[in-house]
Structures are given as C-alpha cells and as structure tokens.
Amino acid sequence: MSAAASRGPLRSVLGRHVLLLDGATGTELAHRGVPTPLPLWSAAALLTHAAVVAEIHRDYVAAGADILVANTFRTNPRALRRAGLLTDGPRLNRLAIELARQAAATAGVARPAPRVAASVAPVEDCYSPQLVPDEAALLAEHGQMVQWLAETSPDLLWIETMSTVREARAAARCAAEAGFEFVVSFVVRENGDLLSGEPLEVAVEAVEPFGPAAIGLNCIPPAGLTAALPRLACATTRPLAAYAHIGNPDPITGWSFSQDVPPSEYARHAQRWIELGARIVGGCCGTTPAHIGAVADAVRLAQDDARE
User: Fold this and answer.
1) Global model pTM greater than 0.85
2) Fewest beta carbons less than 10 Å away: which of 67, 95, 259, 294?
3) Number of continuous H segments (helices) and E segments (strands) in the chain
C-alpha cells in the first residue's frame, strides 16, 4: 500500500483539507514537443516518450500536487483497438501507473506522497455525446478498463470529462463493483447542462448511489467553471472537484492552444472555486506545472484561513 493510500479514504481527507490535483498531461506532452496523434493522443507517449511522461509527473509533484492522474486517459479498449494495440492494454496501463507511482515517490519525506489516480475517460470523443454507445457496450468497455487498472493498484479512479448520464453511471458502477474509491467529473455547456443536454442534477443523481468520493466539473474554460460550480454544489453534499481547461479541442492534434490564461490569473479562478466549496482544485487541458504551482498558493491560503 502506498504512503498516499495509507492516509485513509479520500473523502475523509477532504473533510479536513483542500487537495491540489495535478494539471494536463496530453497538452503538456505537446508543449514539450512530443507527438500526440489520435486515436491514442496522450497514450502514444507511453510507446515513444515514457521518460517525458515521467518528467511531467515529477514536475507536478514539485509544483505541490497531492493527486497525480496517470496517463491512462486513452489507454481504454476502444482507443487501443483503433490503434491495433488492444492486446497491449494491460502492459500500457501498468506502465502508466508505474510512471506516476515512481514520480510520487520523489515527493520526499517532507510531505506525504501524492495519491496516484487512474484516469477513466469517455470511450469515444469527449465532446461528441452523440457517439456514446449504449449502456451494455459501456459496461463491457469500462468493465475491461477497470479490470486492467485493478491489476495495477492505483489509489483511486478518476472518471472524468463525462458528457452523458449513461456513461457516467456505467463507469461509476464498474468502479464501485471493483471496490475502487473514485471521483466522477462532468463536462457541461455554458448553461450548466451536460454536453448531451441532460441536466447536471440528473447526472449527479445517477452516480450518487455508487458512492463517489467527490463529484466535479472539468474541461470547461475557467470562467465557465466558476459559473457552473454553484449549480453542482446545490446538487450534491459530496466534496467538489474543479479543474478547467485553457485552449480548445482540435480534431487533428487533440488540442489547440488558442487562448492564454497565465498562471496567476488561473490561480485567482481556483481561489474562487475554493470559496464556492471546491475541495479538490487543479488543471485540465492546457494547464502546466506553472499553473499548478500558482494554484498551490491558493490552496495554502485556503488551509491557513481554515486554521484561523
């Protein structure tokens, strides 16, 4: 059992502390000159630039991250099948978790090692809810993904960028049935509904029975996340997670850096998320270790205020 896991269940920790999530992996690989072609996107680096993946994780540890999300966003059965690598699923997921685990160990003795979370992404394109398959296919594919991850023993599963109720429910069910602690995070429109058009409240109600440690919002521009977070807070009593993106999706590379939000500005948004009740804050696509380092200051300030 890792040092992070030995600190007890995540939800109990969130009752006492605001935790810092790491930032993007896929776009950070692109920043560092690593090709991220579809369908594997960030997962391609596990085959070609594993050392750079490890370096990114270490940089987020140095920035102060309490949770590292391993590079498993596109190591799911559907993406690997399209790349002709389905039989490599167990090996690639194991490698992704090992790289994050090794980086977590670099935190030293001055603070607890970060928890290592395994990303569980939509089986199809994150921004195309119309492509999400039926529930039977979702249960089969997320079940296979969770089985692969169970063999690697991450501290928790990070179910993220969910755009439909049925996929969030299926992924949460698979995580719960495998005995994992997990977080579920949704991506929403400007009006706060899921990209599918389904109400956020319905999505929250669908995953609540499976006992998520936290429920969040991600891959939304910072100001949009700030606007949507109060609605999520009204829909659940569970701890909230918030991590925004910078830039926009790109159909060829996976992401374009069409906008710029400097670390200091991003940290001000994160401070506002904490004020709105977020207990986990970090970064999604486009954010960097510099952004997470700036957010770390906001987290420390929140902790200091809580002690006063």
Assistant:
1) yes
2) 259
3) 12, 8
